[in-house]
Amino acid sequence: MAALEVLLQDLRAEGDALDALVADADDAAWRTDTPAAGWTVAHQIAHLHWTDHVAALTTAGASGDEDAEAAFDAVIADAMGSPDSFVDSAADALAGEQVSTLLSRWRLGRVQLLDVLTHVPDGVKIRWFGPPMSAMSMATARIMETWAHGQDVADALGVVREPTARLRHVAHIGVRTRDFAYAIRGLTPPSAPFRVVLTAPDGSEWSWGPEDAEQTVTGSAPDFCLLVTQRVHRDDTDLVAVGDDAATWLGLAQAFAGAPGGGRDVRVAS
Question: What is the pTM of this model?
């Protein structure tokens, strides 16, 4: 099975898992606040719908759809005009819709994105808010964001999600964006690669980087994924950094595009 097809299957599965959390939720649940300040469950789904839609536009544009490319240009122009508020504004605009309408639009957008990702010519890069990426990287990024915002929804609804092997995609993009996390803060990333070794949900080991690297990060895959998506404070993870540079990175890590995120506060013991 082609690598992209595997990624698209996992993207579909991640969306379906989140869909199962909200499909039968009542209106009160959709209006419940999530850990993201000012965002309800509806805002989280609205944001995912908006980003899926924009991702589909730029992906179609990369495949030669001039109208889609122009529409993505317009999105970029809006973002440049209000870089600090365009994401929240887009979520606000959609979150007020009827739950059934928002849910239907999100479902349709997921299907459309999966379809356009299958038609990107080999070697073509897709424009995005960060560096241009391949179809495989775009699919990986969408898995990451769907999982991360799904975590916000699960937290709001009091649901504990079982970690899956799909976390490997989230962890992978978390490792690959190490230098990006430095760059968006105007910092120079370390020149030497790090070694990252994570314990997968099934107890196996996932690893990146040379075995003889002096700077290392070890711990559980779920905690690493929560950290790089800024869904948990560094002090609330089991991650262990060896080396000053590795420790610094864990305080900066950011797997998603855009300006530096604010992260989360340390949990208050009950």
Answer: 0.94
